[in-house]
């Protein structure tokens, strides 16, 4: 199994892509720390994972990853399970507004959820990873979940689009800075995927038909499909890849 003996931290792990990624890594042997703001969702996700195995593999931890004190507590908790080899920054969220109608408060909150969180968690967990002694050649990785919106601005989500473009470039900066310590950093940019963030829109038949028309594969993606890509980027199979964004948009940009 690709992740036997490894510990992974996944933010935004209570549902959607984060939950799917946690399940995928646990299935391949990792101990997974599920971080997020809603403990009930985290506990339910952890229970769903743990019931599949004899030993506990999933550990829920409540944290607001836009707050430094919470991320420091997350780091302490994670290292009590085992030094982290893998960090998946998946937490995020969005709101709908036009640029000229976007409030400062909404701009700041969306930037915090999607970009500040990646900076803060990567800074604190990355520093711990750097300072942790590991055997030579042990593969360690950070995977940041960006978005198709980081390539092509989405309608009425200027704050989200700007933040996700920032995640892609922040990942490249992380890759350069952490490479001397044997830590890789890559990002994954999903297109339209069935998650709580897209749930309301996908209930609208006109919206789903528009996605099909604009996507080469003529369908919406599933969280498990993105989790497979995240797992690849986090694994030693991607040991020569760093500073790269993996776009998984169903062919949106080629239509």
Mean pLDDT: 96
E-strand count = 7
Range of strand content: 5-15%
Radius of gyration: 17 Å
Instruction: Let me know the CATH homologous superfamily.
Output: NAD(P)-binding Rossmann-like Domain
Helix content: 40-55%
Oligomer: single chain
- List the total number of helices: 8
Q: H/E order of the elements? A: EHEHEHEHEHEHHHE
Detailed description of the structure:
- This protein is α/β, with parallel strands linked by helices and 255 residues long.
- The chain has one domain: Rossmann fold.
- It is 44% helix and 15% strand.
- The protein contains eight helices and seven strands.
- Strands 3-2-1-4-5-6-7 form a seven-stranded parallel β-sheet, sandwiched between helices.
- α1 packs across α8, α3 runs parallel beside α4 and α4 packs parallel to α5 (158-178).
- It is globular, with a radius of gyration of 17 Å.
